[in-house]
Amino acid sequence: MFMESIEKPKKIPKWLPNWKDEDAYPNPKNNISREQWAWEFMRRNLTYQKLFREGLKHNKSWYQKHSTDSRFSRYFICKPRANKNESYDDYVVRCQQLNKTPVINSKKRRILKEFPIKESNRKFNPANSEPPEFNTDYNYPFMFVAPDYDEEFIYNIKDDDEVFMVFLSALSIEDQIKKATELLEEDRLLFKKEGNPVSEKMKIHQKSFRNYLRILDGVLSGATQTEIANVLYPGQGTTAADNSALDKVNKGLKTAIGFRDGGYLKILETVILS
Known about the structure:
3 domains, two-stranded parallel sheet, mainly alpha, 10 helices, two-stranded antiparallel ribbon
């Protein structure tokens, strides 16, 4: 059986739910947002956690307590730029000589550069249960108006598989729906002809997300795939003769790792089914 490797943190985060408790995870029946699911995977990303810890350790008060420490430039993003192995005191003197007021930010801001989060008042803490605001433009680049006139349809849809239409109440609703249906059907047939039907592309079931998270957390907590299979899929195969449950865990782990290590961006642009 294929075993998907997974990088483990030096210390299991305190906020990590008990993977055996289904109720400790978001309930798909509650119509969870794409942002919440994306956040659940992203905050389990070890690079994100590492950057957060670094930023927490070297906050703005650090240089006040270690003004002569030559490691100053390693921990902060400065304008004007700090020199390598320059202490905070030396940096301030140099800025005075340049007649410039220094602007100093913790390298915690690297999180904003490497992960798609908008800067806000929310703390970028992996322990947060609520998702931050992702820096992804969900607004479609065009408005798809469906009036009585064909030439006013703007058809330049995002990723060629999703459409957002605006209907005008001042015009005939029946005519607008008819014209919109005709255009959508034309696109559907085109996708099918090209072997990329709308009905099959970019669909993810929320029920799967919860299991993916539980599998990730189970492995991080030290559980074997067999143990996880017995909890998530009781009564199903975990033996050499029948390993159907183990296959589900193995495939689920591979998918979960993909979402954790960057695939959460796909969730933000995906059609999610309950």
